[in-house]
Amino acid sequence: VQASVNNKYDYWHKDVLSHFGSKLGGEMRTFHDTISQSRQSLERLSVDTVSTEEAVSFIIQVQETKRRLPGWESDLKTYRSGQEVLQRQRFQFPQDWLEVD
């Protein structure tokens, strides 16, 4: 009976880790895409603009990025702690896993 209970627990443990790992990995990829898009849009804009419209667009983009930064920092802490939990539980990370660092 004890072996059966242990096997069931091991199965549930592995299943929960797998689901958590796949959800965390998906969220981290989405977060990475969002950060990359924001970075690319900032890099396309320049401080040395020709028109007032471009200058206003640049300022708005910078302000929008600054506004989103605290939320991104919070998300990053969550992803880091989630990855640490998975590492402690000896989760087998997939080949395409994005490391938090």
Q: Give helix % range.
A: over 70%
Unreliable stretches covering 5 or more consecutive residues:
none
* Alpha plus pi helix count: 2
Task: Return Rg in Å.
Answer: 21 Å
Task: Please state the structural category.
Answer: mainly alpha
Q: Brief overview, please?
A:
The chain is mainly alpha-helical. It is built from two helices and no strands. Helix 1 packs antiparallel against helix 2.
How would you describe what is shown here?
It is a single chain. The chain is mainly α and 101 residues long. The chain is 79% helix and 0% strand. The protein contains two helices and no strands. It has helices spanning 2-44, 52-88. Helix 1 (2-44) runs antiparallel to helix 2 (52-88). The radius of gyration is 21 Å and the shape is rod-shaped. It starts with a helix and ends in a 13-residue tail after the last helix. The mean pLDDT is 90.
List key phrases describing it:
101 residues, mainly alpha
Secondary structure elements and their pairing?
Layout: H1 2-44, H2 52-88
Helix pairs in contact: 1-2
